[in-house]
Amino acid sequence: MLRVDHEHPAKTLGPQAARLVVELHERRRLVFGLHDVQQITGLGADSARSFLARLAARGIVTRLKPGLFVLVPFDLGHAREYLGNPYVVARELVDARDYYLSHASAMEIHQMTTQPQLVVYTTTLRARRPRTILGTEFRFVRARPAAFFGAAAHWVDKTEKVMVSDPERTVLDGLAQPEYCGGITEVAKGVGMRRPNLDPRRLVDYALRLDVGAVLRRLGFLMELYEIEAPDEVARLRSALSATYHLLDPGLPAEGRFLARWRLRLNVDPEELRAVGGT
To answer: Which of the pair, 229 or 151, is modelled with greater confidence?
Structure first.
């Protein structure tokens, strides 16, 4: 509960700061920008910056980047290094509609991993430099417009929602770029954990729409390895294969036997993948 004394706001934050905090809570804008402060307080840009600098010095807000701040919860006292929900921060960092949380971050949201995540991954249509804020790294993966699909709104707490890849698209992103998920073994583990809930047709529809040869091969291999019974969908994948071979995990050395059925070089032991996938 917000502890602001509305009758005597100077005892807590002061009238202007109290009004800002109350209004931001009412608007559910715990991560907010300079323009929000100007709109609520009526201050000009320079005065609003000075005002926010004073609030940051008192630990009432934390500066995330120039012009972007987060409210520090009152129950934390005057904390000067409070990040808030990193997924909401990622949403505000891109400041765009065309984004979705992806790769290892989406795997965490969909409970497809047991590993703690130290990096927040966001897929966008524009190239963006990575940022590190208060010890959390934010990385941005650029996607082609034609490959930008398969995301939906997801509530990350009681008041905030973000766009995140759905489970099937999360699998495909992991198969395309396993290095952003901890390697193919972690992606495979996620497939095994969510196997009963994955839609085989959607998986294959997405894979064919992406039209990335390595993804087609890795998906087909994992579907058969984890006995995802969908013979028609597997046939659709196999009919789209070319004669080229790809590594099962592009981040590992080019070694291991060749699997002609899926045009893959198995540089990860299938038995290891069966074990992590629970089969």
So the answer is: 151
